[in-house]
Amino acid sequence: MENSDRPEALFLDTRQRIYNLIEQNPGLHFREVQRRTGLAVGSLQYHLDYLAKKNIIRIEKRGKFTRYYSVSGPQLGEAQSTMSLLRQESLRKIMIFLLTKRRANNTRIADALGLSPSTISWHLDKLVEAGLIEKKRKGRKIFYKVINPAQAAGILREYKKSFFDELVDNFVDIWDNVGK
């Protein structure tokens, strides 16, 4: 798409609103875009497809989620997969817990987050597979820790407003005050 076509593609207020939301909140999934815009599912799908066809946004399908990113806005590069996982509430809570505790075992994480150990194990496996956390055996226990805490904390800090999450707000305030 030529630059001269861009204003035409974003001429409608609805498309401009969708684009601005995606540019400010990279990695939102379809239902979250729908909730934040209040558009009907069919209408939103039409506009998202149009913006993708005009190469203004790009669509990434991963697992059961379809996520949206701006083509010309801030690019996440390697951090895109981290952002995609942090958009999932349970994974985000686990990451924040591990960022604040440095390392923990499954039972401690499950107790702190109020989730079953089997659910925590499933989420931890996803985070290990994605290369965000590592697990190490110490005696009979397995401990988990974040591999690149600065990157994860940086994403949470930079996109704090996009999460609408008090836990993220509190974490970023603490992280900033500790001087990390």
Your description of this structure?
The chain is of the alpha+beta class. It folds into 2 domains: 5-75, Arc Repressor Mutant, subunit A; 77-180, Winged helix-like DNA-binding domain superfamily/Winged helix DNA-binding domain (Arc Repressor Mutant, subunit A, Orthogonal Bundle), CATH 1.10.10.10. 59% of the residues lie in helices and 16% in strands. It is built from 11 helices and 6 strands. The chain has a 3-stranded antiparallel β-sheet. The chain has a 3-stranded antiparallel β-sheet with strand order 4-6-5. The longest helix has 13 residues, at 41-53. The radius of gyration is 18 Å and the shape is elongated.
Task: Please write out the topology.
Elements: H1 5-9, H2 13-24, E1 28-29, H3 30-37, H4 41-53, E2 57-62, E3 65-70, H5 80-86, H6 89-101, E4 104-105, H7 106-113, H8 117-129, E5 133-138, E6 141-146, H9 149-158, H10 160-163, H11 166-178
Antiparallel strand pairs: 1-3, 2-3, 4-6, 5-6
